[in-house]
Design a protein that fits this description.
single chain; two-stranded parallel sheet; alpha/beta
Length: about 270
């Protein structure tokens, strides 16, 4: 099957028979989305005329013609519309280490907030924000500051109103992948918690490691593990609780040398 443009309308057509399956796909999509509950992330099939997210070929309505354009699949397009603010990716793009990390970080962070919103208290919201502060710092200072003001709740809003406001800006904060240098800023901030307890040579070694990451000579995971070792050695419950150091469970994503500033920025 392929997407065929007839006038201004897209149709899902089987070229070998001319069969138009658009209505069947629309019916299936509507039924699926109607039954879909809360989700924290959604993975679609790359380039599929039904389930593709971004790079699906769109053809003119004539035989043996080259594609006119590229876009979303029939089902994929509706998923993207329905799940605005929720991470949606196709499986091919997830092979990019940066996009994979970004997708999983968003999905697991939003899941944590969803679970909090279902049965948590204002104190739980404060705890969630505290544990995710460094992660949000990596994604951007503007939304971090706004979310901090939401948690402060100087206007005395109800938990329901706080959740709505926080959810909206949390999704906005996590929309774009952080730049490759953003984790460096967070790690430098972390270093300040026990910099005066380190030997000068040790501190210099860590700074050199950060520079090697920026120069694409080592992956970020090396710097993260160094910082984790300092947290254990010097003892910092606050840093140990930060999701920045492990935003999703280990073993889901393979981390390689491409986890560096040499890997192109993605969006």
């Amino acid at each position: 099957i392929r997407i065929v443009l007839r006038g201004k309308e897209r149709h899902l057509v089987q070229p070998s028979t001319g069969r138009d399956v658009t209505s069947s796909m629309v019916s299936f999509t509507n039924d699926f989305l109607e039954r879909l509950g809360e989700v924290d992330g959604f993975i679609l099939k790359s380039r599929s005329p039904s389930c593709g997210a971004y790079d699906v070929r769109i053809y003119p309505d004539k035989a043996n013609a080259a594609p006119l354009d590229r876009g979303s699949g029939m089902f994929g397009e509706r998923v993207l519309e329905r799940l605005q603010g929720i991470p949606v990716e196709d499986e091919a793009r997830l092979r990019n280490i940066k996009l994979g990390e970004h997708f999983l970080t968003r999905a697991f962070t939003l899941r944590g907030f969803r679970e909090l919103a279902e049965s948590g208290s204002v104190a739980d919201l404060v705890d969630f924000h505290t544990r995710n502060k460094f992660l949000l710092m990596m994604y951007g200072q503007k939304e971090l500051k706004y979310l901090g003001n939401v948690v402060a709740n100087r206007s005395g809003l109800s938990m329901k109103d706080l959740v709505m406001d926080y959810r909206s800006h949390l999704r906005r904060a996590l929309t774009k992948p952080p730049r490759c240098t953003s984790p460096v800023n967070v790690l430098m901030h972390s270093l300040g918690y026990f910099s005066d307890q380190m030997r000068p040579q040790e501190r210099e070694f860590f700074l050199q490691s950060l520079q090697m990451y920026k120069d694409a000579r080592i992956p970020l995971s090396v710097c993260l593990n160094l910082m984790r070792s300092y947290i254990l050695r010097f003892g910092s419950d606050y840093l140990a609780s930060q999701t920045f150091f492990q935003p999703f469970p280990e073993g889901i994503l393979e981390v390689g040398i491409t986890d560096s500033c040499d890997w192109r920025e993605v969006s």
